DNA sequence: AAAAGTTTAGGGTGCGCACCCTAGACGGGC
DNA sequence: GCCCGTCTAGGGTGCGCACCCTAAACTTTT
């Protein structure tokens, strides 16, 4: 891996743990096992580094937003795939999801595009849920799918913070990701066809075991 | 109002807007219309000031946690009262609710008590919802009330951030508070007796108009 | 082998910020 | 009038941090 990429990855991880402001360039250089001078060779300012992370964030979101329910596929599997991708994103860029509006100042791409991303995410989830309704796996009024999508997004997104504040560990392997996904299921599991509910639960449990690209 | 109290109130408001770290003591003094020296007369360190705000936070939560559904009262009114108190708290101490775990380092009371507060909040909401079930106003399985309470807490709590990120104004008078409360209603309004749903909606709308102690 | 790119080590700067210090002014209570 | 508490003004310090600089060493590419 190129040094520059290693720096961006380490920065993202440290920002997730401590927040952007609390991570010193000295600590970051040490984490990468490089000299601070080398950090400055690759990035002119700390803000440039933030923008590199933000660009990755944008790319990740753009790629995820391409996910669509397959018309000839399996709605449950497609939905699980989407939720898995979302959770991965929330974890990879946790500091940005913790207080995204505040980072808009540091990285213009975020400030400009956050609203559109959020709306597109709701629409994406809604499309997947609508597929479940079409397949007879979910009994939910069409008019209520948007609200369900929004609520699901909020629950998934803030789930890890929720467990963190309860004093529970939230890192990989702790079960927090699985619990977060299960929590979001409580929004609509009563309206799922029982076998579909079981399949979805199983699919999400498998996804929860996949470690993220640290 | 005593200067010390004015300082604490101004600090809380500025921390809500900018976060603790981004508020300089110089800016705070200016906001209070006092000299910086006077700020240091009242508080030895910035952290002492943080702790004063945190103490208020703790008191507010402890007082709110005393709210109980009145056995001889009206479940809907009691529930609205609780939700109103919660929303007020989320707004008064918005910065602490934005990233509460991170503030545990600055103010020990938060770090030590956050888990217990959160659990108590769930139980409180659950008790109020159970009352609605008992009164026949809400059709919800008793076993599902805890999940509903948790989800409601998360939605209410992060609702303002949600609108903020959509680029919508969230201050007093913008309708964001009302929309947040309505959003949480989408979790269970389909299970509310129709007249009860209308009454609750009306009660929450009235609460949303009450400005918070700036 | 030479050129280009990357990295190190070690010194440094400038700035922002929390906080200190001091003498004196002012206001309220006795 | 005295005492005490509160506040001001204006000067300051020390520290943490992002970032700079430079020569040399090392690695990769041509």
Notes on the protein architecture:
Chain A is mainly alpha-helical. Chain A has 2 domains: 44 residues, Orthogonal Bundle (Arc Repressor Mutant, subunit A), CATH 1.10.10; 153 residues, Orthogonal Bundle (Tetracycline Repressor, domain 2). The first copy, chain A, is built from 11 helices and no strands. Chain A is elongated and about 60 Å long. Chain A starts with a helix and ends in a 6-residue tail after the last helix. The mean pLDDT of chain A is 93. At the A-B interface, helix 7, helix 8 and helix 9 of A face helix 7, helix 8 and helix 9 of B. Chain A binds a DNA duplex (30 and 30 nucleotides) through helix 3.
Topology:
Two copies of one chain form a homodimer.
Chain A: H1 3-18, H2 25-32, H3 36-42, H4 46-64, H5 75-92, H6 94-98, H7 100-103, H8 108-134, H9 145-165, H10 176-185, H11 194-208
Helix pairs in contact in A: 1-2, 1-4, 4-5, 4-8, 5-8, 5-11, 8-9, 9-10, 10-11
Chain A binds a DNA duplex (30 and 30 nucleotides) through helix 3.
Question: In sequence order, what are the helices and strands of chain A, one letter per element?
Answer: HHHHHHHHHHH
| Average of per-residue pLDDT values of chain A | 93
Helix/strand structural class of chain A:
mainly alpha
| Sheet of most strands of chain A | none
- Percent of residues in helices of chain A comes to over 70%
Total of DSSP H or I helical runs spanning 4+ residues of chain A: 11
CATH superfamily of the largest domain in chain A: Tetracycline Repressor, domain 2
Largest interface: A-B, 31 and 31 residues
So what's the oligomer here?
Answer: homodimer
Based on DSSP secondary structure assignment, what is the total number of beta strands of chain A?
Answer: 0
- In CATH terms, what is the fold-level topology of the largest domain in chain A? Tetracycline Repressor, domain 2
Rounded radius of gyration of chain A (Å): 19 Å
């Amino acid at each position: 891996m190129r040094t520059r990429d290693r720096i961006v990855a380490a920065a993202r991880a440290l920002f997730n743990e401590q927040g952007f402001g609390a991570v010193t360039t000295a600590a970051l250089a040490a984490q990468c096992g490089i000299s601070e001078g080398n950090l400055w060779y690759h990035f002119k300012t700390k803000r440039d580094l933030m923008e590199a992370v933000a660009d990755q964030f944008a790319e990740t979101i753009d790629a995820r937003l391409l996910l669509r329910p397959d018309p000839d596929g399996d709605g449950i599997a497609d939905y699980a795939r989407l939720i898995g991708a979302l959770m991965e994103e929330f974890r990879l860029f946790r500091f940005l999801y913790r207080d995204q509006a505040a980072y808009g100042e540091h990285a213009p791409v975020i400030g400009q595009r956050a609203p559109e991303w959020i709306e597109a995410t709701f629409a994406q989830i809604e499309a997947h849920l609508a597929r479940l309704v079409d397949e007879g796996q979910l009994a939910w009024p069409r008019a209520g799918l948007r609200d369900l999508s929004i609520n699901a997004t909020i629950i998934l997104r803030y789930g890890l913070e929720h467990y963190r504040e309860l004093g529970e560990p939230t890192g990989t392997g702790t079960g927090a990701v699985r619990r977060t996904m299960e929590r979001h299921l409580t929004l609509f599991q009563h309206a799922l066809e029982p076998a579909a509910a079981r399949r979805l639960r199983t699919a999400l449990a498998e996804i929860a075991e996949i470690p993220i690209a640290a």
